[in-house]
Amino acid sequence: MRRGIAEHMRRSLDTSAHVTSAIEVDMSKVVAIRAKLKQEFEAAYGVNPTYLAFIARATVETLREYPWINGEIRGDKIVTRNYVNLGFAVELADGKGLIVPVVKNTEGLNLLGLARSVAEIAQRARDKKLNPDDVQGGTFTITNPGGYGTFHGTPVISQPQAGILGTYAVVKRPWVVQDELGQDVIAIRPLMNLTLTYDHRLVDGALAGRFLRDLRKRLETWGESDY
């Protein structure tokens, strides 16, 4: 497995022009809504609404507005799609490797459906019960090293995709916000770094920046009934 991972990563670096952009996100709205939904989701559906599920759902909506980031270069053509097949990097037990199972057609899943699908396919990956189709057809990937406390990284793109999103630890830090009078004040906020590593042959820095800006807006303005 390590040989296969090494060959895939090396081939990706030799193929794509890797660039990484990062943005900070105030996760206050997501933290509050997750705390409210967690008991309901676990009691009624046996599903934990993780931060990853929220980010994945917002990412799907944002990718629909940025088809090149959800696309690929195929020969001398740019291929875009009207669907989003999300790959999720999953670490296998005892550090024995990494596999990227794919949840297909995520544009048709709400928050609950996506949370359930991610949990199920990740567990099947750890139990070595994936089918060949489960690791094929991804159009975009999310990797989540933040579960180990890391706050930044530069992931490698999974070929032939054009981008991969890195999600990192939620950390409480001082943050400048506006009070009810419009004055700048310092508050404690749960912040998360997101990185987008993209293929510069297809995606320019300005496009990547707008994607991250819009993804951040969705997460920072999340309403209880959204998605």
Provide a descriptive summary of the structure in words.
The protein is α+β, with helices and mostly antiparallel strands and 227 residues long. It has a single domain, classed as 2-Layer Sandwich (Chloramphenicol Acetyltransferase), CATH 3.30.559. The protein contains 5 helices and 11 strands. The strands form 3 sheets. Strands 1, 4, 7, 8, 9, 10 and 11 form a 7-stranded mixed β-sheet that branches. A two-stranded antiparallel ribbon has the order 2-3. A two-stranded antiparallel sheet has the order 5-6. Strand 5 and strand 6 (98-99) form a beta hairpin. It is globular. It starts with a helix and ends in a 7-residue tail after the last helix.
Attribute tags:
11 strands, seven-stranded mixed sheet, Chloramphenicol Acetyltransferase, 227 residues, 5 helices, alpha+beta
Count of β-strands = 11
Number of helices: 5
Could you give me the name of the CATH homologous superfamily?
Chloramphenicol acetyltransferase-like domain
> Structural class from helices and strands?
alpha+beta
Instruction: Predict the CATH topology.
Output: Chloramphenicol Acetyltransferase
The topology string of helices and strands comes to HEHHEEEEEEHEEEEH
| Low-confidence spans | none
Number of separate domains: 1
Q: State which percent range the strand residues make up.
A: 25-35%
State Rg.
Answer: 18 Å
The CATH top-level class label: Alpha Beta
> From the 3D coordinates, which CATH architecture would you assign?
2-Layer Sandwich
CA-CA gap between termini:
37 Å
Residue share in helices?
25-40%
Q: What general form does the structure show?
A: globular
- Write down the overall mean pLDDT: 93
Major sheet details:
7 strands, mixed
